[in-house]
C-alpha cells in the first residue's frame, strides 16, 4: 500500500481533487492532451510495473545510477553516461535500446523481455518527442493520497448541463443573421475586432460543396448560384448538397475517423477483418438519412438489444455495434484473459473519447490523474463489456491465438454481400478441399505423436512447423467455406456485439495487473456524470443498453456538446473546444462557452439532427465570411480563436484524391458493394493479394471505399495526413511537406487523372485558350485572371514546340499539344489553390 501511495504522490501532493488537477493541467499545458494521454496509458504503467523497483528514488538501491520515476532522471540516464531517453531520437535512447534486448550486455528488464507491443509503444513515445509530465521530486516532500471529491468534480464546466445565456448588447447588431452570429460578434466586439467581409459567391459555393460533399462544384452549379439573385440562393445551394448521396460519404468519413475505422487488426500480426465494411456502409447511410444522433449512438453501443421494426432494421442495428468490434487488437497474445481485458480497454477508450470527449481508459491502472474519474468507474464499465461478446471473425492460424466468430444476419434482412454466388458444385469442392486439408493436419499430428520422445526434441521445430502449416491450410480453406451456404449463396456476416448468457462483474485490478485482483466492482456508469445520489450500478443484463441510454440522454452534459463542437470544427476549421476528443480538465476550455451551449441545446431541440445543425451554421455570416487577412485583427488574435475571418483549410486526403478524379471525369460514384478486403484470402496471402489488386490498377471509387488496412494505408491518403486508424481522431493534422509535392508530380494515379482531364478539356469547343480557361473553371470554380491568362498564353506558345522537338508532322504537333494539356492539368492539381479552401 505504501508503494501505491508513493506513486500517487508523484502527481497528487494535495488532498484537493479538482483544483490540484487544474494546477497540473496549467503546468503541463505545453504537452498536447493526446500525447499526455499516450504517456499515462502506455508508458507510465510499464515504468511503474517493470522499472521502479530498481530504478526510482524510492528504491533501496538504485541500480546503475538510473532513476526512471522523473522526467529529468529518465532523460539524464545512468552511470553509463548515455542518455536514457533523447526525445525524437531512438539511436540515442539507451532505455529503448535496452528493452529491445539487442545487446547481450544491456537487457531491461533483465529476466523477461517486454512484449513487442509495449516496445512499439515506447518507440512511438520517443519518436513523438517523449512527452513526460513528471517533475523532479523534492527530498522530504510529503502529502496524502488524492481523494476525488465528486461534488467538486461536477463543477468542471463540461460536467455542468448546458444552459442558454442572454447575448450581451451589441454595438453593430445589424451584422448578425442569427444567434450564432450574435455570440461570435459579441466576442469580437469585446476584443475590439471587426469581422471580415462576406466571401464572394464562387469562393462560397466551393466551400459549401467541399464541406458537404467532399467534391468540387460543377461549372454549371457555380454559374447557377452566381446568377441567382434571390435572397434564398445560398439556402437552396446548402439544401441541394445536404440532400446529395455524397453528403453521407463526406460526413460518414468524419465519423469513421472518430470511430477508428479499420479493416484489419493492426499491431504485430495485422489480421484482416473482411466484414468491417458493413459498419462503414451503416455510417454512410445513417448520415444520408439524417438518423437522429442520439439514436445513432445507442445503436452503436447496444443495437443488438434494441427493439426493431423488421428484419432489415434488426440487421442494421446489429451491424451498428461493429463500432465496438473494429478496433485494433493484439491477436498473438497467448493469455486469453489479458487479450479480453485489452479488448475491453480499447472499447472503453474509443467509446469515451468519441461520444463523451473523456479519456476514461486512463483510469485502468489508477484513479484518473486529472479528471474526477476513479478506478472503480473504469472497472464498473469493464464489467459491462466483459458481459458482452465481441465478434470480429478471424480464423485460427499461426500468431492468431485469439480467433473469433461473426454474427450471421437473417437472410430476410436482404443485406448486400461482398461476394457473388458460386455454383453448388464449387461449394461442394470447397467442402472436399477442407476435408482433405483437415485430414492432412490430423495425419501430421498422428505421425509426430508416434515418434519417440527423443526424435520429437531433436525435430521439435520442424515437427511444430509441419503441424502448424497443415492446420493453417485447413483453416484457410475453412475461411472460404464459411462464407457460403451449401447452395453457393454467400452468407451475410457481420462484426458486432452480443450479450453473454450470464453477466459478470470485474474485479478492480491493482495497477491494471491481472495477477493483482482486488474488490469485485458492480457493473455501472461513470459516477461524476450521474446526479448526486443517483444510483449508477446495473443489476440486470450486461448493462450495454443502460450505458447507451445514459450516454445518449439529454441529461448527459457532454454528448450534445461534444458533437456540436465536432460539427463546428469541420465547418469552421477549428473547434470551439480545441481538444475535440478531450473535454476533461487537461482539455482546453471553450473559446465561446455560451455559443457552445447554445449549439448543444439547439442540436437536441431539433431532434438531434446533424443536417439541421450544419444548415443552421452554414446560413450564418460567421460561416460565410471571407478568409482575408487583417493586420489589426491578426495582431490581437493570430490564431483566429474569436473567428474574425474564415480559416483557410487544406483539403483532407480523400477530398484531394476525389477532386482529381471528379474534375477529370474518372470518378465512379456507384457505391461499392463490400470491400476488396472481403474478397482477399486469410493471413499474409490476403495482404499480398490486396497489394496486387490496388497498386497500379485503377480504383476510381470514392476514397471512403478504399480499403483501410492498419499500417498499410494507401499512399494517396497517407501522404496527406490520413490519421492513425487505431486511435480516435476528432481532428486531423494538416501539414505541408515536400512528399506531398513529389506525390503530385510523380504518382501514376495523379498522372492518369491529369491525362484524363486533358482529354476532357480537349473535347471542349472553342480555341485552345477557351479550353484552358475551362480547366480553371473545373479545378478552381473560377475563370483565370488577366495575369494568369498571360502566363497561360506564354506557356502554350513555348511548351508544345519544345515537346515536338522540331518535328513538323501533324501527328507530332497533336502529341505535343496533348502533352502540353496534360502538363498544364497536372500543374493545376499541384497548385496550393486546388488543395486549399478559402
UniProtKB/TrEMBL annotation:
Listed InterPro entries: Cyt_c_Planctomycete-type, DUF1549, DUF1553
Cross-referenced Pfam families: PSCyt1 (PF07635), PSCyt2 (PF07583), PSD1 (PF07587)
Limits of the DUF1553 domain: 543-795
Protein name: PSD1 and planctomycete cytochrome C domain-containing protein
Transmembrane feature ranges: none
Domain Cytochrome C Planctomycete-type residues, every copy: 51-111
Protein's organism: Prosthecobacter algae
Annotated signal peptide: 1-20
DUF1549 domain location: 179-388
Coiled-coil stretches: 427-487
Swiss-Prot/TrEMBL keywords: Coiled coil, Signal
Source superkingdom: Bacteria
